[in-house]
Amino acid sequence: MSQRDATRKPAAGKPAPGGGPPAEAAGAEAARPDAARTRGARGKAERARAGHGRTGTAEDGRPKQGRAKARRAARRAAATPGRAAGAVLGRLRAPLTAFLRRFGLLIALVLSGFLGGLGYALFAPTTYTATAYVLVVDDGDGGQGPAAVSFAQAFGRLAPLPETLAYSSIPLPDGAMAATRDHIQSSTSPDTPLIKLAGSADTPAAAAAYANAAADALVRYGTSHRTDTGVRVALMSMAATPSAPSSPNPPLDIAVGTASGVLLAGLGAAVLSGRRGRTHQRGLHDASRPPRGAVPGPAAEPVEVHS
């Protein structure tokens, strides 16, 4: 066979020289890896398109997954202050609990006093007070002698009595005769024969009426007994209608209530301090005692050393 015939390609479907596979089979074998690679690339492209379709894009061109991550980050940022506040409260819980355990009772007493004063200032009935003054003059000395001072104190005790008020020409408010001690108070000085008559009521006019009626009654009563006592009672000033209530007084009431609470808190602190001291001393004493049932060891014998 010539060299030209040897290099000639075998015919289709015929086996190649040397017993090899046919030419078509060899071509199929060579094309199979290329087809597999093509199908793999096509599958990847289809999966990418499918993933892009599921993810989608927002109107501003950002993927929906990125927008969801942004929302989650915003929620975490919004929750960060609450978490920080919770952490701060967690750190302060232990010292705050210890502080309230030690001073809670004292704070409660002071707060109770403050609230008591505030409650009285808010809910106590309004009271008006008017004041009149009368003077006792000694006729014998022509002035303010010892007798005038003594009779001034006696007349001061008689002023709120219904029997003395019966001398008054100024009418009392309706139904007040049976409770004159609740509406009329008198006070005297140990050095001067001056009598202070205070009338109190729920209206300004009634308060002034009580004070003026008591002063007028005392002047008339003293004049009627002038020959027996040797002194006379003179009116110094009539009571004016008050323009503002005398009670309640919110600043004063709150201050008194708070001061009472502080006083109770101080007493409570003293009692608790003494109790803690006794408990501490008892604990030290118990710690220094040997346990029950313990047998003391033998005492060490002195050892003599001879030089």
Features:
elongated; four-stranded antiparallel beta sheet; about 10% strand; alpha+beta; about 300 residues
Q: Could you list the spans in which at least 5 consecutive residues all have pLDDT below 50?
A: 1-21, 52-62
- Strands ordered across the widest β-sheet: 2-3-1-4
Question: In percent terms, what proportion of residues is strand?
Answer: 5-15%
Mean pLDDT: 75
Helical/strand content category:
alpha+beta
Per DSSP, the total helix count is 9
Overall geometry comes to elongated
Largest sheet: 4 strands, antiparallel
Cα distance spanning the termini: 138 Å
Rg over CA atoms:
55 Å
Number of strands: 4
* H/E element order: HHHEHHHEEHHEH
Helix content: 55-70%
Overall description:
The chain is of the alpha+beta class and 307 residues long. It contains 9 helices and 4 strands. Helix 3 packs across helix 9. Residues 1-21 and 52-62 have low confidence and may be disordered. Helix content is 60%, strand content 10%. The longest helix has 60 residues, at 64-123. It is elongated, with a radius of gyration of 55 Å. Strands 2-3-1-4 form a 4-stranded antiparallel beta sheet. Keywords: Cell membrane, Membrane, Transmembrane, Transmembrane helix. It comes from Actinomadura nitritigenes. Belongs to the CpsC/CapA family. Residues 64-75 have a biased composition (Basic residues).
